[in-house]
Amino acid sequence: GSNLAIGLSDNSIHLWDVCGAKVVLEVQSP
């Protein structure tokens, strides 16, 4: 999707595909 949003919560980084309404990337901090 062309629409991306980055959210930070619970010490983890989420890259959302807004068009797909799903998480396409999830990276937890060490």
TrEMBL record:
WD repeats lie at residues 1-18. InterPro entries: WD40_repeat_CS (IPR019775), WD40_rpt (IPR001680). Keywords: WD repeat. This is Uncharacterized protein. It comes from Nymphaea colorata.
